[in-house]
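Troubleshooting entry. Yesterday's outputs looked truncated, so today I'm pasting the complete records for two proteins to confirm everything comes through intact. If either block looks cut off, that's the bug. Protein one:
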Amino acid sequence: MTLPLWLLPGIASAIVIMAESRIALRHAVAIAEGLRVPPFLVGNTLVALGTDTPEIVNSIISSYLGHGDSNVGDSIVSVSTHGSLVLGLFAFVTP
């Protein structure tokens, strides 16, 4: 296939993702208003689920295949990355 034909599905996917993210945002705000919690809390929960789901799937599959070392390495790197990102964000959020 030529390059434009390879790019077409990527562009179409980006358009669908942008449209779906607007729908997800509207529903997240509605959930936050319905539960009377800050929208920031609902947004953080959705981001946490979105980022941790691949790691959970990876851990389940590698455990099933008998590769426990992959679970340990993934967990250590994940915790250290999340910790350093949160500490880095504190520098921007707090005075």
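Protein two, checking that the full record survives here as well:
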Amino acid sequence: MDVGNRLKEFRELKGLTQSEMEESTGLLRGYISRVENGHTVPTLETLERFARALDMPLYQLLYEGEKPPRPLKTQGEDMDDWASQGKGRRIFSKLQNAIQKMTGADRALLLYMAAKIVGKKSRA
């Protein structure tokens, strides 16, 4: 797959110049040119910036099929873990919301504490 060609194709379909992409992504026009011509491989973060500037989902820059890809099953009846159904699902949803509201430092502390708990149980 040639991400540079796809990026250039989508940029031209949207009627944008490299200079306009420079303004909307904050990336230098020379860098955008190097990516489009295959001289530089962009990072995932850079691809996200391109996708936002082009007002499209990131997968479209990478996906080559005719139809959009099938969504992954992340919830539903086919899943059989504790957090997929019933009370477990409600508890897990509350936990997700609480973690999203935490600061980065609080999340790091929570993960550290969880690792310590798991470490203590496995040694006992």
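Both blocks look complete. Sanity check on protein two: The chain has seven helices and no strands.
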